[in-house]
Design a protein that fits this description.
heterotrimer; A alpha/beta (about 350); B alpha/beta (about 375); C mainly alpha (about 300); A: about 350 residues; alpha/beta; 8-stranded mixed beta sheet; 4-stranded antiparallel beta sheet; 11 helices; 12 strands; about 20% strand; globular; C: about 300 residues; mainly alpha; MetI-like fold; elongated
């Protein structure tokens, strides 16, 4: 099979990517101005994350705006500088400024199909540029390899001389996926790959991602706010809130037995095809705090129905319960009777 | 297209009736038939969802009802009857007088719908002062009350804030307050929660539902999100290619569709509660609205299409239970559903679209 | 997990059927845009006007009959006639001939003079925007300093220092004129660099030079080009003004500015000596501005 397999020897065992203590910060405005306004000058978009991505898995990172999930994705891909922490990929530490080979192994698909492709380049030039710069294949094979890439994502070779504007949104996402695969990465990070597409087209891209995983043994990290998509595609889920992972578990375990109050609220808020019962209070009230002013202790306590004094004083760690090491939650009341809540609607009824 | 779809028929007649609406947009490439013969009703105190993907014409329908079409677009025929009065022939000044007090709109992007240099309280109070002749003090009082009703904390203080000082969810609440300010009878919503986080969306939907229940306001809710429609609307109309595909009570239409396009939509969207083996997309693209296909708009993509589908423009055929479908062969949709439930269908058969759909029609020219 | 078998918009297992989706043939939008360029009235009018002047300048020897520089005092100050279409100046030189040869000089200098600031300003603006930080700070402060001086004041001062002649004009215009391009390009790139295709290029490890040259600049250069059109007009005016002030191309070269200067003593008797060069300047300025307008219409982003 001449389809592009992930490059590099990932024969080893152990996680493909390990991130420890990862932090990404942004400076907002000027230090002086912030002091006048008595605000924080530093925005901690990602605030100390430990994460392992296993080979061949599909990990979802979910969260709402301000959770830092996109920033995390960009930090892992290497396009956003990291303020603290380290990343180990396939046993080797990733340098702050990545060089060629390291660059290739983690690639990203972006959300907006309309701005993620250079409007002035044909699909063919886009792909051949990448292939040539990284010497993925010998020059003579660049064109045939480009054709294979397109076939892999379900596009014909007529796409090669075409410009992005000639494609629909779904087709553009395919081109974007082909571009990401051109460098034969081991890890593909997809940041909301279907959010900007029509509903009926989303399915094609989701199916494509799933098939590529099976076909190429690709490891996938999916950023999404849509839990239905996540449930369909991924085997493990990390829930982020204000820059931290608050819960991490296999998909079905998370949806049937959520331990963190934020996860519970998130699941309760999902609209389903069943009629809503409007007499209940909303799953969660108020707005999330600004990432410039993260609450002390547990950052979720300002909206949490279970908040106690300990939540104000101590920042809970992401720890596993007694039952399973794979399910971890960052709540003082997780895995105890006080933290138990009704499973998310529909879960466990399959 | 004269069928009245009002289920059970509210005694005072529907709040809003759209009859055979045609909206066209003049572009350099030809005339876009954005809305091509659409009829539906919004009963009093109920919510009707208008569902479709991009290019279905749902936004244009909404805008033509409110009378805020872009300058190149116009209603070429049809009636828009609000509480018994046809809005289409009205001049702009008459329309303005009716719009404020009777109709209001909530947009998708609150930041561009709110005036960035005007305080929020003033924006809410503007309508009542203009349309209902309230004094400044009384209008301010109403603005305060509305901000409380929509759940904005510390309303006395926040009345003097500017839109950029609010979060997305709060801005949407402000929009709702503005919409409610003149005590309208119909609120038109254009994807009001699409840009919001799921927990905020939950809050806003509940708020809308509660407010409508309390004040008896009718809702016309445009969205592409099927679960959202299921949550908040009682009736749903599915649009495709500028026409209606199907209409009926929301639970019936979504769980037991009578049009292949609706069936395709339901099968292609991942449902959180019901993880299917495969998501089955609808291949192909929406039709060109400049030169749409003859006959049924969906026939080039439809696996159930027969010869008459290519020629005959299917009328809305009323079905029992207050439903209607624009498919000449809807019984094949029913068969497909039954086979699926009996577990007799392969993934390929779940597809509602044909093997090699005709890709010739470019998607350019379709109206949002 | 079943792989949905290929058909329509589906992924087909490798080795099996391919060719599901082809892009639409050259989008009607693109064709429409290519077609409209010659329907754009401003662009066409501008091209015609400028074209006529350009062609006249090129075929100058064919449409003029005298030498533009040699003096012929016996024929001085004659009004328009069959022999001298626009008359002669105080040195007996045929005005029409000098007009046409003046076009050669002025247009050539203007077109070249606009090129250097264009390149310099674009490069500096791109660097300032893309790298930000100190680059941006320093470059933009220099821009601020240059902009603080009125264009002509600075220009005249520089030419005065550098001495008359074409070379000083090029240098002076370059040193003064690059700032507008820098600002325009910087603004465009600040926006463009946030586009996801730039992020994609960065994540693919492409070098910064490549990203700037291949991915960013082609998408933003149109604004600079449009500005360049009006800049040519300004440069023509600058050259003509310098010539009028005696700081431009030294006599006896046929140049519109010095022609206007030379003729002003005879305004009451032979107004044509000053007026026709002036009209020529206006005409060329009009033509180029119209081209700029037309281009702005066509290249406007978002059809």
């Amino acid at each position: 099979m001449t389809a592009p397999e992930p490059a590099g020897q990932t024969a080893g065992s152990g996680p493909l990517l390990t991130a420890s203590g990862l932090s990404v910060t942004f400076n907002v405005g000027s230090a002086f101005g912030a002091r006048i306004r008595k605000e924080n000058f530093v925005l901690r978009a990602v605030d100390g994350i430990d994460l392992e991505i296993e080979r061949g898995e599909a990990l979802a990172v979910v969260g709402e705006s301000g959770s830092g999930k996109s920033t995390l994705a960009r930090a892992l891909t290497g396009i956003t500088p990291v303020a603290a922490g380290e990343m180990i990929f396939d046993g080797r530490k990733l340098a702050a400024r990545r060089r060629g080979r390291d660059r290739r192994r983690i690639q990203m698909v972006f959300q907006d199909p309309y701005s993620s492709l250079n409007p002035r380049l044909t699909v063919g030039s886009m792909l051949s540029e990448l292939l040539k710069v990284h010497k993925v294949v010998p020059r003579s094979e660049v064109e045939s390899f480009s054709r294979e890439l397109l076939n892999l994502v379900g596009l014909s070779e007529e796409a090669l001389p075409a410009y992005p504007r000639q494609f629909s949104g779904g087709q553009r996402q395919r081109v974007a996926i082909a571009r990401a695969l051109a460098l034969r990465p081991d890890l593909l990070i997809a940041d909301e790959p279907v959010s900007a597409l029509d509903v009926s087209v989303q399915a094609t891209i989701l199916n494509l991602l799933r098939d590529l995983r099976a076909e190429l043994g690709l490891t996938l990290m999916l950023i999404s706010h849509n839990l239905a998509v996540v449930r369909h595609l991924c085997n493990r889920v990390a829930v982020m809130y204000l820059g931290r992972i608050v819960e991490l578990a296999p998909t079905e375990e998370l949806f049937s037995n959520p331990q963190h109050p934020y996860t519970q609220a998130l699941l309760a808020a999902i609209p389903t095809l069943e009629p809503g019962s409007w007499d209940e209070e909303p799953a969660i009230t108020g707005d999330p705090p600004s990432p410039l002013n993260i609450p002390s202790g547990c950052r979720f306590r300002t909206r949490c129905p279970l908040a106690e004094q300990i939540c104000h004083d101590q920042d809970p760690e992401l720890r596993a319960g007694a039952a399973s090491a794979a399910h971890r939650a960052a709540c003082h009341f997780a895995f105890s009777a006080a933290g138990a809540a009704a499973p998310a609607g529909g879960a466990g009824q399959d | 297209m004269t069928a009245a779809f009002s289920p059970g028929g509210a005694p005072a007649g529907p709040m809003l009736q759209v009859r055979d609406l045609h909206v066209q947009i003049a572009t350099g490439r030809g005339t876009v038939r954005a809305v091509d013969g659409v009829s539906f009703e919004v009963p009093r105190g109920e919510a009707l969802g208008l569902v479709g993907e991009s290019g279905s014409g749902k936004s244009m329908t909404l805008r033509s009802i409110l009378g805020v079409l872009p300058p190149t677009a116009s209603v070429t025929s049809g009636q828009i009857i609000l509480d018994g009065r046809d809005l289409v022939p009205l001049k702009q000044t008459d329309l303005n007088r009716i719009r404020g007090p009777k109709m209001a709109m909530i947009f998708q992007e609150p930041m561009s719908a709110l005036n960035p240099v005007m305080r929020v309280g003033a924006q809410i109070a503007e309508g009542p002062m203009l349309h209902q002749g309230l004094s400044r003090a009384k209008a301010a009082e109403r603005a305060l009350d509305l901000m409380r009703r929509v759940g904005i904390p510390h309303p006395e203080r926040r009345m003097r804030s500017y839109p950029h000082e609010f979060s997305g969810g709060m801005r949407q609440r402000v929009m709702i307050a503005i919409a409610l300010a003149c005590e309208p009878e119909v609120i038109l919503c254009d994807e009001p929660t699409t840009a919001l986080d799921v927990t905020i969306q939950d809050q806003i939907l509940r708020l809308l539902a509660r407010l409508c229940r309390e004040s008896g306001v009718s809702l016309l809710f445009v969205t592409h999100d099927l679960p959202v429609v299921a949550q908040i609307c009682q009736q749903v109309a599915v649009m495709y290619g500028g026409r209606l595909a199907e209409y009926g009570p929301v639970q019936d239409v979504l769980h037991d569709p009578r049009h292949p396009y609706t069936l395709g939509l339901v099968r292609s969207a991942p449902d959180f509660d019901n993880v299917r083996e495969a998501l089955v997309p609808i291949p192909g693209s929406p039709p060109s609205l400049i030169s749409p296909p003859d006959g049924c708009r969906f026939h080039p993509r439809c696996k159930f299409a027969e010869e008459d589908c290519q020629v005959v423009e299917p009328p809305m055929k009323p079905l029992p239970g207050g439903r209607a479908t624009a498919c000449l062969h809807y019984e094949r949709t029913i068969e497909s559903l039954e086979a699926e439930r009996a577990g007799q269908l392969d993934p390929v058969d779940l597809q509602v679209a044909a093997e090699r759909p005709d890709e010739a029609a470019p998607a350019a020219g379709s109206a949002p | 997990m079943s792989i949905t078998a290929g058909a329509g918009d589906q992924f087909a297992p490798t080795g099996g059927a391919l060719v599901e989706l082809a892009p639409r043939p050259a989008d009607r939008g693109v064709q429409a845009r290519r077609a409209t360029w010659y329907k754009n009235p401003a662009l066409m009018a501008g091209l015609i006007i400028t074209g006529i002047v350009l062609i006249a300048a090129i075929i100058a020897p064919l449409i003029t009959f005298y030498n533009p520089i040699t003096q012929n005092l016996t024929d001085a100050l004659q009004g328009p006639s069959a022999a001298h279409w626009l008359g002669t100046d105080q040195f007996g030189r045929d005005t029409w001939t000098r007009l046409v040869y003046g076009a050669r000089l002025d247009l050539r200098i203007a077109f070249i003079a606009v090129l250097f600031p264009f390149v310099l300003g674009t490069v500096l603006g791109a660097i300032a925007a893309y790298f930000g930080g100190w680059f941006d700070l320093v470059i933009m402060r220099v821009v601020d300093v240059v902009v603080a001086f009125p264009f002509f004041v600075l220009l005249i001062a520089l030419v005065f220092v550098l001495g008359p002649g074409a070379r000083s004009i090029y240098i002076a215009i370059t040193l003064v004129g690059w700032v507008s391009y820098a600002r325009i390009v910087r603004g465009e790139i600040l926006v463009a660099k946030r586009q996801e295709y730039v992020l994609a290029a960065q994540s693919a490890g492409l070098s910064n030079t490549r990203i700037m040259g291949r991915h960013l600049l082609p998408n933003v250069i149109s604004q600079a080009i449009i500005y360049g059109m009006s800049d040519i007009v300004q440069d023509i005016l600058a050259i003509v003004t310098l010539g009028y002030l005696g700081l431009g191309i030294p006599p006896p070269a046929a140049e519109w500015g010095s022609m206007i200067n030379g003729g002003q003593n005879f305004l009451s008797t032979h107004w044509e000596l000053t007026t026709f060069p002036g009209l020529a300047v206006i005409l060329v300025g009009l033509g180029l501005s119209l081209i700029g307008d037309g281009l702005a219409d066509i290249l406007r982003p978002g059809q």
